[in-house]
Specification:
Elements (H helix, E strand, L loop, with lengths): L1 H10 L4 H52 L28 E4 L7 E4 L13 E4 L4 E3 L6
Length: 140
């Protein structure tokens, strides 16, 4: 038996214990890496929504400077935004909403993204002060 083990060692073969250790290490790394990858994927998808909300926010600032109030601002509608400015890989122009518009306040909501299934239930909200009310992750 000892002779067989010595021959296997010289032949460069791995023992069953060595293979099981490697499999265990790979499994542990996968358990750590997969959730991190998923979270980063959602964050990268939502960055497109944040950019779109920024475009709407710029249009609202222009509207306010021209009218002295946010009252009457609608999206889509009275805001001047290019036809393709809010059309992206994950978000369509219909994925944005203008909420709670008063004379001096508003809330923009981006999401959930309609052009992917990788970020279900996620949204982003920002108000006139630049405060993020809902940030990237779920409203579930």
């Amino acid at each position: 038996m000892k002779k067989l083990v010595r021959q296997m060692r010289r032949g460069g073969a791995f023992t069953l214990v060595e293979l099981m250790i490697v499999v265990t290490i790979v499994a542990i790394l996968a358990l750590i890496a997969i959730p991190l990858y998923s979270a980063n994927t959602v964050a990268s998808i939502m960055s497109e929504g944040v950019a779109g909300a920024g475009s709407i926010r710029t249009a609202l600032r222009t509207y306010y400077s021209q009218n002295g109030s946010y009252t009457g601002a609608t999206y889509p509608g009275t805001l001047t935004i290019g036809a393709t400015d809010l059309q992206g890989k994950y978000f369509a122009s219909g994925d944005y909403q203008l909420l709670n518009v008063t004379a001096s306040t508003y809330t923009i909501q981006a999401g959930p993204p309609s052009q992917t299934t990788k970020a279900p239930g996620t949204y982003y909200q920002i108000n006139q002060l630049g405060s993020e009310l809902g940030n990237y992750y779920t409203n579930q």
